[in-house]
Amino acid sequence: MFTPHTPQEIEEMLKVIGVETIEELFDKVPENFRFPELDIPDGLSEMAIASELKEIASANATTDDFISFLGAGAYNHYIPAAVDMILRRGEFHTAYTPYQPEVSQGTLQAIFEFQSLMTELTGMDVSNASHYDGATATAEAANLAYHFFRGKRKKIVVSRSVHPHYRETLRTYMQGLENAQVLGDEPAAGVSSDLNKLLALVDKETALVIVQYPDFFGRIIDYTKLIEAAHSQGTLVAFVFNPTALGLLKPPGDFDVDIAIGDGQPLGIPLSYGGPYLGIFTIKDRYVRKLAGRLVGETVDEAGERAYVLTLTAREQHIRREKSTSNICTNQGLMALAATLYLSLLGKAGFKQVAELCYQKAHYAADQISKVEGYELAFPKTPFFHEFVVTTPKPVSTINAHLQEHWIFGGYDLSQDYPEMKNKMLIAVTEKISRQDIDDLVAVLQEADHD
Amino acid sequence: MIEPTIYELSQVGRKGVAFPETDVPQFDLPDGFRRESLNLPELSEMDVIRHFTHLSQLNYSIDGGFYPLGSCTMKYNPKINEEMARLPGLANTHPLQPLVTVQGDLYLMYQLQEWLQELSGFNRVTIQPSAGAQGELVGAMIIKKYHQVKNAPLRTKILIPDSAHGTNPATSTMSGFKVVSLPSDERGNVDLEALKAECDDTLAGLMLTNPNTLGLFDENVVHVIQMVHESGGLVYGDGANLNALLGVVRPGDLGFDIMHFNLHKTFSTPHGGGGPGSGPVGVSEALAEYLPSPIVTILEEGDDETPPFFGFYTPKLSIGRMKAFYGHFGVHIRAYTYIAMLGAAGLRDVAQKAVLNANYLMAKIKQDYPLPYDRTCMHEFVVEGAWEDIPDIHALDIAKRLMDYGFHPPTNYFPLIVHEALMIEPTETESMQTLDAFATAMKAIAREAREEPSVLQTAPHNTPVHRCDEVKAARDLVLCCWMPE
Questions:
Q1: Touching check for A352 and chain B: CB below 8 Å?
Q2: Confidence at A326, pLDDT banded by 50, 70, 90
Q3: Chain B neighbors of A314, CB-CB under 8 A
Q4: Which one of B10, B26, B343 has the shortest CB-CB distance to A360?
Q5: Cβ–Cβ contacts within 10 Å for residue A181, how many?
Q6: What string of DSSP letters covers A319-349?
Q7: d(Cα B94, Cα A428) in Å, to the nearest integer?
Q8: B26 exposure class (CB count in 10 Å sphere: 0-12, 13-18, 19+)
Q9: Which alpha helices (H) appear in A175-295, and where do they start and end?
Q10: Which of chain A's residues have a Cβ under 8 Å away from the Cβ of B468?
Q11: What phi and psi, each to the nearest 5 degrees, are found at residue A275?
Q12: In B235-267, which positions are buried (b, 16+ CB within 10 angstroms) versus exposed (e)?
């Protein structure tokens, strides 16, 4: 199907090689293991696979069929049609890493524009060309800090209000660093917005403090004191941010953080059951030589024209091999292009408007839900962006099962990751949710209460 | 040829996309949190489309021509894959939906795990890792944890042949291992004497790419694996070159303990200008409980009337989670589509035609370019891009000149053990006519190298930009666009 050879051509090619059959080319493969029978079904035509996959898809219910209040790290935003039209261009998606700049200026300039948009969005100095997702970017931030101190500071302090998957990924990565220690997010630490417990852990042994902004529960917390205290110990600070929130909120750079990382999925990338998403990684200038991942820089060609190239490659694994501090190679090129397209299309006014819509609708939803008997906001005094925690009168799973009958995906059941947070639901609201959707949710909650 | 940046194109007050006005009452953000300015570009939809269409036209791609970038398996990416990954029933599912509402997604992921297991001869597969390098990290961490559990914490040495990708040693260091490089022998195999000398009680494992980056199948692979096993180590297979082995031999049968797959190489998912990839990992039965969590499994068996119920489980000795959620599902859909369309026979055909194409092209150009290892190759081969009698011509010059002939250059200066290496991987999707045209260009360039070397040294001539000043890029770092105040 995807091999064009005719029988005559195969004959001719074998003659040029000087063998009789294709099988002879494999004579170095141990004979007893050669050409196994594989238990894989016969191939399907394009027409047949298309109908098979539609059938598989029909076993799902989607965020198109249901009103969805799920967030917790993946957000259902509107993606303008023009984003995918460009992503589908073979010149972008069937090219590889731009090792040869003369024939890769399209990819290189697009990444350069991505880096520019990310530094503007975050208020940081430098962005790389991306990481796999927000979780691995968080782990790589700790890796950077550990190596910045040449392994002499071994503590990574992380808030329990950072996304649970990010913290798990961080712990996995830290297994490879000698005596590295991750602390601060034990159940006893709690999820209060009071930062004193976290602060008490930061000392001269601490390489990095990681907090989330807005945090996993959607709360906007003022970390100014924590940052000052950390810096007074020489400790670096990383923010895990939500990019949509930065349409409205002060950027991480305004707080003088050292590293700002996040997941770029809200910027024009489909939910796609959890991936591929986009790791955003931005830093202050002084860490640029410790930065993992690819970087595009501006230069000139021999004719003196502006051109773009991969730069500072001497940091990377293909040059430094065992001396490099990260093994990252392929990143999320096409997802970075999606984010670049999304922000270019929405622009200054549109992106701010989306952030405002999320904020307004989330607050309307919180206001309405908290009026339902038995429901209240878990953190009523803390400002939030487009996600908030509701205390429910029954287990969240019971409520969600009922909502599902009414074609609604309720919020995330926090007890799955936080045993101490029974009857706590994390609700996310984006611009795709209408007032009517919120009113419908409230109506079903009221009904469920009277069951 | 200069395309302005999005910031240079920006016009104050211009808009690309309109959103509906708010339909809820106004709520005010508390003081002190609102940002003062956010300087995003201001463009119309058409400005954006034209800009990125222009940029795309500056790229070389598989859809545009032959892309023999060695070790990257730049095969054709079927268009049906793209359609399937965008089916709303798959693309619009949220990762935290109730399991009962995502049985289609889970079935697809489970089936892909099963097929990868069957293809590779491993006992269990995770499809969570984001890319090949992350798959390697999974492998190295499993090796580490395995020795910890077996009470052998002093096994801290990883052996890596000198022909390996840079990710192998970088991964080992990231996982806390000490790396020892193994030489290759005169036939391109692992040097058995050197291996024997390193097989002691500090050995944690060997990372082996087979076929290796010279495109050669290690003639002693079974023996090499046995030697490592006998001294208590594990063998990691770098699956970067699996395209040569589909339906030909299963790495698990050869004795490998762990291996990663590159779905964006072997299984035709697009490279995307540098990702997203996907790097599933297969392991032997002894290592199944070390895999990252979660893994898709059958929670309740089905019967004639009801399908099985799919969900997740966490292996008992799991090294932990590698990323948020479950993997690059959008990439899994494409790989699933590809495997289902090819079937067992089609998969073997891939390997056979990939190896046929590589040997044919090697035969066509070996008169003109020095071939350091003159034996049957697998899916790729390495020649020297230099000649003793014309010392001023380098592999780089040949690579750049190929662009003028309308081809993407091969990988150059890798593997490191070949002087002025040009690593050529044609893949199975190329026709004899394309290979002939490439061989003709290579011959013409070899002739030019002698007759008119300056044409090579100043190449490329017909590309959107000429050779770029990489020293300046690194010295005067400019990593963001000019932005209007």
A1: yes
A2: confident
A3: 474
A4: B26
A5: 13
A6: HHGGG-S----S--HHHHHHHHHHHHHHHHH
A7: 12
A8: exposed
A9: 196-201, 224-232
A10: 101-102, 299-302, 307-309
A11: 170, 165
A12: bbbbbbbbbbbbbbbbbbbbbbbbbbbbbbbbb
- The edge-to-edge listing of strands for the beta sheet with B381-384 is B381-384, B421-424, B411-412
* Non-local CB neighbours of B209 within 8 Å, separated by 6+ positions: B161, B163, B164, B165, B168, B237, B238, B240, B241
Q: Does B43 touch chain A (CB under 8 A)?
A: yes
Residues 6+ apart with CB under 8 A from A8: none
> CA-CA distance, B432 to B50, in Å (whole number)?
36
Calculate mean pLDDT across residues B11-22: 95
Contact present, B354 and B243 (Cβ < 8 Å): yes
B312: which strand partners? B296
**Nearest chain A residue to B307, by CA:** A59
A58 touches chain B (CB under 8 A): yes
Q: Are B173 and A328 within 8 A, CB to CB? A: no
Find, among A92, A56, A99, the residue nearest to A296 by Cα.
A99
pLDDT in tens, B450-475: 999 999 999 999 999 999 999 999 99
CATH architecture of A82-341: 3-Layer(aba) Sandwich (3.40)
Q: Is the pLDDT of residue A449 over 70?
A: no
| The two three-digit tokens of residue A303, written as one number | 């004719």
CATH of A67-79+348-449, one of 3.40.50.1100, 3.40.50.300, 3.30.2010.10, 3.90.1150.10: 3.90.1150.10
pLDDT tens column, A185-224: 999 999 988 899 999 999 999 999 999 999 999 999 999 9
The rounded distance, in Å, linking the Cα atoms of B129 and A230 is: 33
CA–CA dist A59, A62 (Å, integer):
10
Residues near B199 by beta carbon (within 8 Å), at least 6 away in sequence: B227, B228, B230, B231, B233
> With 90 as the cut, is the pLDDT of residue A330 above it?
no
CATH 3.90.1150.10 fits B346-470, yes or no: yes
Q: Is the dihedral of CA B477, B482, B483, B485 positive or negative?
A: positive
Domain ranges of chain B: 81-340, 346-470
* CA atoms within 13 Å, Cβ hemisphere of B254: 33
Predicted-complex ipTM score:
0.97
Cβ–Cβ below 8 Å for A347 and B41: yes
Q: Which residues of B touch A121 (CB under 8 A)?
A: 38, 40
Cα within 13 Å of Cα(B123), Cβ side? 13
Q: Which two tokens stand for residue A145?
A: 């800090």
Shortest Cα distance, chain B CAs vs residue A399, angstroms: 12
Q: Which of residues 63-102 of B touch A (CB under 8 A)?
A: 63-64, 67, 69, 72, 74-78, 80, 82-98, 101-102
Q: Residue B303 CB: number of other CB atoms within 10 A?
A: 8
Structural contact between residues A374 and A127, judged by C-beta atoms closer than 8 angstroms: no
Which three-class secondary structure state does DSSP give residue B235?
A: strand
Q: Does position B169 have pLDDT exceeding 80, yes or no?
A: yes
Using CA atoms in the order B265, A294, A134, B266, what is the torsion angle rounded to 10 degrees?
0
Nearest CA to B210 among B265, B259, B263, B277? B259
Contact criterion met (CB < 8 Å) for B414 and A318? yes
Query: Token pair of A115, please?
Result: 């880096």
Number of H helices, E strands in chain A: 13, 15
Chain A residues closer than 8 Å to B54 by CB: 106
Model confidence pLDDT, tens digit, residues A154-194: 999 999 999 999 999 999 999 999 899 999 999 999 998 88
CA angle B50, B55, B58 (to 5 degrees): 135
Interface membership of A132 toward B (CB under 8 Å)? yes
User: Domain B81-340 belongs to what topology?
Assistant: Aspartate Aminotransferase; domain 2 (3.40.640)
